[in-house]
Amino acid sequence: TFGFGPTRFRRNGKDRFGLAGRRPADLERLPHFPADNLDPDRSDGDLCVQACANDPQVAVHAVRNLARIGFGTVAIRWAQLGFGRTSSTTRGQDTPRNLFGFKDGTANIRSDETAALDEFVWVPKEEAPDWLVGGSFLIARRISMAIEPWDRTSLREQEALIGRTRVDGAPLSGGDEFTEIDLAMQGRDGPIVPVDAHVRLAHPTVNGGTRMLRRGYNFTDGVDRLGRMDAGLFFIAFVNDPVKHFIPMQTRLSRDDALMEYLQHTGSGIWAVPPGISEGQWVGQTLFT
To answer: pLDDT per residue over 222-235, tens digit each?
Structure first.
């Protein structure tokens, strides 16, 4: 998967390649969200390349060869190696678990939900330059997870922070993993699903019906200087309207989500992903010609 970043079109006010007039209006650097602690060396970039494989050596080799071919013209700005996945995209897949041990991505858009994909993922004809129609916007966020403090937290508190049970991923309001969450259900001390629970604040009914296609991965980069795991979630999502479908939700989560006590966003980027190509074509052909 290939994408073009905002600086591919204009950087420091300069039209670098004569393409500024073809930049999608929504292709703007993501704003600084509450509690962000971004590393500029792990953020943004003119180009994005996502390579996936069952064996990480294959993915690394693919990126390495692209960088080798482009030597003298391009250089790798930053990279992140992920493993597993943190969301399912078909009903035939079991919902995977994140590094906190909870099932992640239960409510993700599935590949057979064509109406939802058209509404939230693929860029429609009337909202973008012709070269991006049928494509999408890729948003990546490197999220460090405080695993050691999390492991010392009681199961009851963990489940309240998430809004789901750890064993089977069922909502705290009852049922199984795929039972619709009842956000209005009350308990002795207030809502069964706490007002600052992650699943409540990310739920479509709290975000104007917004959904997104998530394709995130776990990562672990050894340990930090204090001997703690440098690990977390490499969040990747595809939306057709970042201003409407991502920024408001992320602002709310960063500001109000109780889970943020255990998370820190350290990398960020957005790229416009052109539609797929047929044999004999090349990526971005309709943009550059």
So the answer is: 998 889 999 999 99
pTM higher than 0.90, yes or no? yes
Residue 219: CB partners within 8 Å, gap ≥ 6?
80, 81, 82, 83, 142, 231, 232, 233, 234
* Distance of alpha carbon 190 from alpha carbon 67, whole angstroms: 54
The tokens of 215 are what? 């394709």
In this structure, the number of other CB atoms found within 10 A of the CB of residue 69 comes to 9
Nearest alpha carbon to residue 79 among 15, 140, 166, 159: 140
Amino acid at 101: G
Cα-to-chain-centroid distance, residue 23:
22
Contact, 87 vs 105, CB < 8 A? yes
Quote the CA–CA distance of 170 and 162 in Å, as a whole number: 11
Q: Which residues of the chain are modeled with pLDDT < 50?
A: none
